[in-house]
Design goal:
The protein has about 140 residues and is an alpha/beta fold. The chain is built from 5 helices and 5 strands. The chain has a single domain, classed as YqgF/RNase H-like domain (Nucleotidyltransferase, domain 5), CATH 3.30.420. A 5-stranded mixed sheet has the order 3-2-1-4-5, sandwiched between helices. The protein is globular, with a radius of gyration of 14 Å. This is Putative pre-16S rRNA nuclease.
């Protein structure tokens, strides 16, 4: 069984989380510059078996797509061409950034570390992945 990888796609940075081989535990992996995301994924997939890619789906409170969905759609098309054998699923990502920030506070991280937007993105990807696992 391969891993499931989750992406919190952003204009500048993308947070990445991954499961263990048994697809039970979601853990933050890293944050990468979005411009290099496909290259990072190619390298990661060459070394790890991945069954599914979960991409956060930003929605408004009324369930309509948020503005950032316009950035994600072209990336999803590129990804489908580069990795046609790996299914892509979407997971609602509403409030994940706020929950990630609260998680940082609750875990006792100081103000300096809470300013690390990359860490927020990585935690957000982990929350997206955990939500997907819970739903699955």
């Amino acid at each position: 069984m391969g891993r499931i990888i989750a992406l919190d796609y952003g204009m500048k940075r993308t947070g990445i989380a991954v499961t263990d081989e048994l697809q039970i535990i979601a853990s933050g992996l890293t944050t990468v510059d979005t411009r290099t995301l496909l290259d990072y994924l190619k390298e990661y997939f060459s070394k790890n078996e991945v069954d599914t890619i979960v991409v956060g789906e930003p929605k408004q409170m009324d369930n309509t797509p948020s503005e950032s969905e316009a950035l994600i759609t072209p990336f999803l098309e590129k990804m489908a061409n580069v990795f046609p054998h790996i299914p892509v699923e979407r997971e609602d990502e509403r409030f994940t950034s706020k929950m990630a920030f609260q998680t940082m506070i609750d875990s006792g991280l100081g103000k300096q570390k809470r300013r690390n937007k990359g860490l927020v993105d990585e935690i957000s990807a982990t929350l997206i992945l955990q939500s997907y696992l819970n739903r699955k």
